[in-house]
From TrEMBL, chain A:
Gene Ontology, cellular component aspect: cell outer membrane
Keyword annotations from UniProtKB, A to Z: Cell outer membrane, Membrane, Receptor, Transmembrane, Transmembrane beta strand, Transport
Species in which this protein is naturally found: Chryseolinea serpens
Cellular location(s): Cell outer membrane
Protein name per its UniProtKB record: TonB-dependent Receptor Plug Domain
Entry-linked InterPro entries: Beta-barrel_TonB_sf (IPR036942), CarboxyPept-like_regulatory (IPR008969), Plug_dom_sf (IPR037066), TonB-dep_rcpt-like (IPR039426)
Membrane topology: Multi-pass membrane protein
Entries under Pfam families matching the protein: CarbopepD_reg_2
Family: Belongs to the TonB-dependent receptor family.
From TrEMBL, chain B:
Pfam families in the cross-refs: DUF4249
The species this protein was found in: Chryseolinea serpens
Protein name per UniProt: DUF4249 domain-containing protein
Amino acid sequence: MSLALLAQAQDNILSGYVHDATTGSPLPGCTLFIQTLNKGAAADTAGFFQVAVPPGRYRVVFSFVGYKHDTITVSIPASQVHRITLIPESTTLTEVVVADKAADAAVTQTETGLISLQRKDIEKLPYLLGEVDPIRILQLMPGVQTSGEGSTGFYVRGGAVDQNLMLLDHSTVYNPSHLFGFFSIFNGTAVQGLDMYKGGIPSYYGGRLSSITRVTTRSGNDQELKGEGSIGLVAATALVEGPLKKNKGSFLVAARRTYVDLFARGLHELGVLKRNIDYYFYDLNVNFDYRLSRRDRLSVRAYYGADDFNYNTSSSFSNAIAWKNKTASVAWQHTGDRLFTELSVQASGYDMGFGANISSYAFDIVSDINDVGFTYQFGLQKNKHDLAWGLTYTRHSLRPNNVSASSDDVSLNVGPPLKLKADEAALYFNDKVTLSERAELSVGVRLSGYSQLGPFTRYIEDDNFQILDTITYGKHKRIQNYANIEPRAALRYSLTASSSIKVSYDKTAQYMHMAPLSSVSLPLDIWVPSSAVIKPQTAHQFSAGYFRNFSDNRIETSVVLYYKAMQRQIEYREGVVIGYSKGYNFDDNFVFGRGTSYGSEFSIKKPKGRLNGQVSYTLSHTTRQFDDLNNGKPFAAKYDRLHDLSVLGNFEYSPRWTFSCVFVYGTGNALNLPVARYVIQGNVINEYGARNSFRMPAYHRLDLAVTYAAHKSARWESYWIFSIYNVYSRKNPYYIYFETEGNLENLELHTSIKQVSLFPIIPAFTYRVKF
Amino acid sequence: MHRLVLLILPVVLLLACVPEPELDQTTYEPKLVIDGSIESGGFPRVVLSNSASYFMNIDSANIRDLIVSTAKVTVSDGVNEEILTLKRDDNFFPPYIYQGTSLKGETGKTYSLTVEVKGKRYTASTTIPPPAQFDKLWFELAPGKDSLGYVYGQITDDAAVANYYRVFTQRLNEDDRFIPVYLSAVGDQYFNGQQFTFTLLRGPENFTNVIDDLYFKRGDSVRVKLCSMDRAHFDFWRTVERELYVVGNPFSSSGNKIISNIDGDNALGVWGGYGVSYYAINIK
């Protein structure tokens, strides 16, 4: 290897950043091409590019859809990092869904399971109550299934919701939901784009089994002060951005708040509303970017968001749920002559409180999770190699389900408060190597390690729930250590200029877990760390796909097959109620087993043109097998979904009018319901059959939106967006239960199946302005 | 803590309900349900019935399908054996009870049950552990109430063995039988070898008609039955009560297997021995 590297050591690096000339925003996916070398590269999410070239003088062409080409001449070796600015083409200045990458990227990128979306992909679609939400569009992608109405959670290739890592810039987000999951915490106006890996995951990402999603927020305009605002049915959003110092630094502040509670209070006082709706959420993004030198950039990202819900039926009864997410990161990027480095320090926190009062009795459940950590990543391009390596470390602190209860002034003993600590770290190395003109290989390995830390008390119980022994661990004591070697590989082989075959293998490991308690996804679901009882989840995934573009890359098609085997999956024991069933140890309520998922994903996409859109269809099957559930027999996972179809389309009728639509169809969730009942001492008792042997009715829904550009000029733009969610008012099942009426004494018993549905047809208006 | 369920439900029920969705119905083969017990100092009693598919609505026409009145029911203590006789009791559903008249339950003995019906044979076995005693039993007004309150009973748990308790109450002139209190089945895993105070929350007669007050009131004459059980017997009632409290609750984990101690194909229910102590409290 050293010889090979030495032989190429004469190569030098051409590197720089590419920006939008009017806003200063980076242009990720912008391509550069050096004709004489027949060599190209694409900019990353920060707009950063680098390419290894031999010494010489070259003409370099930068191009990006929606922008005018730019050509520069450079001499290599070059001592500087280039700053390229591209001017938007005026005819396509606004609101065209732009391809975020090279036209043939679907065929030529080696990452089999990478989904990349930019802000303009996100803004156009119809949304629930008009709120732009990047997670909603992610849920329409092949292999990604929404976990149901009212949830920002999703299932990727048969993986549970907790197996998706959500990153907001550099920080982990543990519950990316607002309003019980109807909206995500990602404010559409501040988002630059998102990348999701569901297979062929590079080794610099890890910590979750099934997918990695990174939402990046954009840097502010470093040329002039700009603003943006929107007023919708439920929320108002405002964004201000501008230079801290022209061409040097910028800021961006975005805020959003719902105002249902403000209206509701008034209506309630007037007697129009019977019950007050005391609910709101808000969030705030603050971003700073600064170029310390031509080679050094500093970016600061902070997010704070909270939900607050109070429910009172009478003076003697009240209920409150509140949850908060906060993240922050500081990243320093340095571009050396050859080496690109990024050091980031990040923190994130999520906490949830649930409280209830009934007359004199009160109780509270508090859960939280806090992370601090750093990542130091290196990148180097060496002729045919694109190397990345680094290390990352996170300290987790958690308090899962700490319950306190009181009756009048007497506090009830429900166990001591629990605080858990754990360390998670990884070393990784990845090399993307061009094997030939046709073949590219991305290969890497991630060495991940985990320790549960004291102080901690473990209770040893026998089958009769008697405590046999108590083991107490002191502060900082390493209680339980785990390590995994996670090899990753992805290979792309181009058959022709417009078709390729890709295969990938991923081994992934996960040390933090969240088991969903019920069929309803709620903020009450808690995260727990690995321990002596909860062992890390691991997965092996194989995928293979055929990618083919037609009509000069105007139509992209693909078929991808995958098989995923998952070990040590986590579920709740049967019959657990939060705050009601508590063992001595925090991990007493869980059981563990295996999961298997396989399927095929079909996709047809027309990325450009006046009519553009995508049709995705996934055929899959997901099962689980647990010794302690269903008599040890395999059962369908709750989210086993045979058919999953998504259609999204945009039609630009004229520069002023754009129409868009979304249609989704999915097989109903598998459901556990009783099959029979019997009478014991006057009580009617349910008998359950095989686990998850029922199916909810299928989920389907059509949404439409019309965007009218009311005003467009160099100074300001304004839009009216009219959207209809659930056009034909399908009553999709949210929750299903049985209700028994009647009385055995009267020899009558009638059972009915009840379904709770959330959203009928919901029309919404949004007014958006940019200046 | 069962109140949690009642407290949380309204949050979800805020959301609109729609009429019955269509679900695929599976065929269901009814199972034999055994509800049998033997108390120290008492005769064995066994009630037999069939389970019914969830999609079968029960009315006076088809309710006979649920009644099993042609079984041969035998109880044995290993030495003596008695075939129970069928008696009608219209106060109860099902309105037939198989009862003994000679074999009485004794502390420390093991009793086996054999049920033969329609050519099939079901067996079970249980023990009668030594009865437990309340150290004291008293009534306290609930905070802010002037006539309603709870009954408390204090026991001293035996540290040497695993103990499983079940508590029933009966208000004279009001309840026609002993009714289990809320969370009536309790194991000593949280208080092994310690003094423990049971809060006796008055239970509903049955869970199809749940009462909303858990109080006893001034003027009530309450009989209290404190029982001890073996592990298998306890597991049945523990899982039954769990199911009764959580059914339909979206905040509980799904699936709830009730642990039966009956051996035989397609059987449900329990055969359980109780070591019993009786108490009475007149609330003034």
